[in-house]
Amino acid sequence: MNMKLKICGIKHNPTEVASLSPDYMGFIFYDKSPRYVAEVPEDIPLHIQKVGVFVNASVEDVVEKTKGFGLAAIQLHGDESVEYIELLRHSFRESEINVPEIWKVFGIKDQLDIDALRKFESVSDKFLFDTKGASRGGNGVTFDWQLLKNYNLNTPYWLSGGIGLEEMKEVKIFSQTKAAKKLYGIDINSKVEISPGLKDKKKIHELKTCYDDDRTTLVSR
After folding, report:
1. Facing residues of 49 across strands?
2. What domains can be seen in the chain, in order of their start residue?
3. How many CA atoms lie within 13 A of 24 on its CB side?
4. Domain N-(5'phosphoribosyl) anthranilate isomerase (PRAI): where (predicted)?
5. Could you write out the DSSP letters of every residue in 11-50?
6. Is this prediction's pTM over 0.85?
7. In Å, how far from its chain's centre is CA 217?
8. pLDDT score recorded for residue 218
9. How far apart are CA 3 and CA 30, in angstroms?
10. pLDDT, tens digit (0-9, with 9 covering 90-100), for 137-190
11. Torsions phi, psi of 147, nearest 5?
12. What are the backbone angles phi and psi of residue 164, rounded to the nearest 5°?
């Protein structure tokens, strides 16, 4: 499967971003974020998967927004526990909506705690590895991707944290290493912005063109 591209933290110009047809568009429902949105635009094309980003939100709020905005995936960017995710999954099954994928986010600084990740394998469809920083995402800084060389779990993961056009060469190199065996795609945010939540269409186009050119080699193995 070819690796996927997700543009996250979209607030001010979602229609422009959608016109570039990324695989996923992420909308942040965390009111302490400068990229916070209260709703998802109705004109997002059906072929683009909509992702809701939540931080320690109530189960009821996540289910309500998933149902209201047709979210295909839920990205949990807070301190959510295994028990929380189990309850969330149960609530989705009880509701009259398609159950979305659930992605658990882990911030990485100078080590990867495999044991901590293993506890979440049974309740997570994918992991997302971001740079641990002052903010819960959108810090614009990469972490040492070679920390993932010991990742031996079965759950596919997103690579995030400070990825922009300048990092695409390194992404391609990394994708061909053993550490990228379960790499599902890359998550882009602050490096393609004019200001928080306002995406730079030109930068996204250049990055996506570069990314699409390499899709045949950037493959999840």
Report:
1. 24
2. 4-213 (3.20.20.70)
3. 24
4. 18-206
5. -S-HHHHHTT--SEEEEE--TTSTTB-SS--TT--TTSEE
6. yes
7. 21
8. 46
9. 27
10. 555 688 899 999 989 999 999 999 999 999 999 999 999 898 899 999 999 999
11. -65, -15
12. -140, -165
